[in-house]
């Protein structure tokens, strides 16, 4: 039984999107789309009508001012800055572009440089893509830097001294992409890190940048708070490289379980999609609601629990004792929650450190949520979206019986309590 976790800030790749998500049919204004990735499954989203094939679509690009299509750069947000000219000047150009109607132009009387910053999770798999153009024989180049370590992504996938990921000296767009892994939590000293895309001009002249995006690899999609859904509609995970204009790929079909369901996929080694969509294939009886939708990247724990998992069912209630001890009770939620207890024994420092960093440190002792799921699922009964206890003791043991005089081992107990589900009418 393999145990997987997704833990901490921005565990959901759809949180704080640069481009607003889309829904069809329109949202119910009392249950807006913004709730669907709020990190609170008890505050649901709901479609406004029972139209066929309801869907929600997310653009997972993290680079600000995507495609430079807006007439002016959008204001900075907590998760992304805007493009800045370090040397030279940048403008939005509508005469030379690869797609849409504009590109970013960098020009100067000598070498020039511009950059944009974006926030990502340490240790996650991502993909950077670009189109660069050089006018008049000058050189255009692209780089990626981790601002927390000062190191640059290199063409072999390592991080080190500055290196161009791609260059172009021709008056036509040269397209490329690079799949990479962000440096780890332990190396960066932080769960979230800022990366910087650097666009360079080699000498006096002008260069152009278009179709510059950076997206995470998605290998998990979870639905939390599915109690209102019926088997008449089949949930599907779909992806696209062109916002479903032509390219529309069925990644996986959910087996609808209640109150949670999930699918896992294998990210492509070729160019990965930028848009992901949850589609309910069929015509619902009523406008469905959903507590939380998560697009994530899971980590398999190298050490499984000692005795699988102890799962407690929690039925939150309001109880009142009346005369002569009579009892009245009323459930507070639409579905029972779970409390999971797991004991771990680590026989080496590597597995102990992985658990410490990926579970306790990323969650900040339960301040940030986590998702647990098994593959195959033997005990949990579906993915669990919850929070860990604020304290997790790690006990270090030394085996003095070994010939070398003491192999270090660790034990711990992880307790995770599921978040409540939405109170939506089940009709």
Major sheet characteristics = 8 strands, antiparallel
Radius of gyration: 25 Å
Gross CATH architecture of the domain at 66-216 = Sandwich
Helix content: under 10%
Low-confidence stretches: none
Care to give the gist of this entry?
The protein is mainly β and 427 residues long.
Structural overview:
The chain has 427 residues and is mainly β. Among the domains are: 138 residues, Sandwich (Jelly Rolls), CATH 2.60.120.260; 151 residues, Jelly Rolls. Helices cover 4% and strands 44% of the residues. It is built from 2 helices and 32 strands. Strands 1, 24, 25, 28, 29, 30, 31 and 32 form an 8-stranded antiparallel sheet that branches. Strands 2-4-21-18-19 form a 5-stranded antiparallel sheet, with no helix packed on it. A 5-stranded antiparallel sheet has the order 5-8-15-10-13, with no helix packed on it. Strand 31 and strand 32 form a beta hairpin. The longest helix has 15 residues. It is globular and about 90 Å long. The model has no long low-confidence stretch (mean pLDDT 91).
